[in-house]
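Researcher: Let's run the pair from yesterday's discussion. Sequence first, then tokens, for each.
Model: Starting with the first of the pair.
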Amino acid sequence: MAITNISMFILPIVLLIWVSPAVVSDKCSPHEKKTLLQIKQELGNPTMLSSWNESTDCCTWDTVRIECSNQKPYHVSQLDLHELNLPGPTNIPTSIFNLVDLDQLFLFEMPNLTGPIPSQITKLKKLTVLYIFSTNVSGPIPDSLAQIKTLTNINLAGNNLSGPLPPSLPTLPVIRVIFADQNSLSGPIPESYGSFASKDLITLTLSHNKLSGKIPASLKGLDLYFLDLSWNKLEGDGSVLFGAEKKTGDIRLAGNMFSFDIGKVEFGRNISRLNLKHNRIYGQLPQGLTKLQHLTRLNVSYNQLCGPIPQGGRLQGYFAIDDSSFSHNKCLCGPPLPACK
């Protein structure tokens, strides 16, 4: 009789656990679940977010799009909203910025994503990775992004962003990568871009914008692996971007109005790609180009260069460097161009 009574007492508890695993295993906080459902609604309830519903743990909705932290208190640490088929033009949902524990935010390849980057983005004080690219997001890059001191990666390429470069971005203390190419950014490059606070910055791309004016002499202090300023309306002494001791591996300045004597430039030994075409660069190519052992791409065409092309290294007979790399100059000569007279 005692055994039967014990069984009758335990059975309901076992059944409760068996039928309600979500009660025990739910990692998603009610606040964050409510926020995510609001984001879904603000995006027009796209079909690709059909797994987002109130009855299940939001940390299990879609592990490609949502990642939760592994330790208590659990929170949504990554939100990836790429390639959503939005039903119509939609602004960035401001509800996103109520997920204050976000570490990474991805919003990309959504042509129907429009409007500005909301000022509320500064609420994400723990954000390290911000990707908003290949959208129709417009307006300026918020100067207030510099308030998010944890940012290491910013990708804002391929949008409709306009206005000046925020002068405060170089104050970000741990930034490593900034992509802002293929927008409509305008005005000069600020003086502050020659002195980034972060010692870890390796990439800065500002190509295919409407930047103009003389580049500041302060950019002599810029030392990155990848720098792309191509296809703007920049002018001035681009030689400040080079230096024998710089770690630069890939530098692209094509399609501007830079004017300097290339014969006086000292190239860092790590350079693998060098694109200077369509500028106003003059002088004679320096012998130092033959010492670049990692060089795989070179283009100095459509400039005002003269004199013999240095012989040796990878400047002749290397498959990616041919006569088109040197064509349309004032009086360059020698292999791979016709012989000097």
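Model: Moving on to the second of the pair.
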Amino acid sequence: MSTPEHSPLGKTTVYADRYDASLLFPIPRQAKRDEIGVTGPLPFHGEDVWNAYELSWLDGRGKPVVALAEFRVPAGSPNIIESKSFKLYLNGFSQERVTDRAALIATLTRDLSAAAGAPIDVTLTDAQARGHAVTDLDGTLVDDLAIDIDDYGPPQADYLVADTSQPVVEEALVSNLLRSNCPVTGQPDWGSVQIRYRGAPIDQAGLLRYLVSFRNHNEFHEQCVERIFVDVMQRCRPEHLSVYARYTRRGGLDINPYRSSGTERPDNPRGARQ
């Protein structure tokens, strides 16, 4: 069955070093979307931007090659790919001879697209510092607000309030205090999040309390971001909204979901904790 409990998460695993596409474990998105009332056409566009930092294979002469990989999974795909299975799959290339990068990209694209149920974009870059600058998410940081907080879950959308008596604003609000937990292992997932919107001003203290209320919440990265998007849209009614979470890596992978009411594609800025 394709549920988190049947995935490799939390289980003793033999790390194979040969290619095996069957290691990829898809999990349907719809069950968690049902929980937040997304049962028809998606109210958002977007993609999940994955970065892999532990990708290696052998060239035609048997010499190891390393690279960084970026994978973009469309939000409209029917499945997410469970991250430990993704790691096991990528690790399987470590003793595989691959003709060239084009051949590897073709294999990765084919296998990952099949698992997600939609076309995935794959990009490989050299494992060198140039072109990989560290930067912050653009926006106003709300973490320094002097407020008392004593609610750490479950997520409380009631904290989200917009002042409709004020003129429309266009701004981005950022927090580095996002934390949620793996729904199977309970391990914490740490992230930064950017809420970019156009609409009535959102109360920053309420937004911060709302984000902190994910602290003991058990849900995958992609599911948390979709929950945030739906809650902000329903409670604050912005004209335009995008939510971008940049999570710290685990097992050589970081997952960065982006959801927007527009059709723009996100950049892939590496944060200080990535």
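Researcher: Give me one sentence on the second I can quote.
Model: The beta strands are 26-28, 45-58, 64-74, 79-81, 121-125, 140-141, 169-181, 188-199, 240-247, 253-260.
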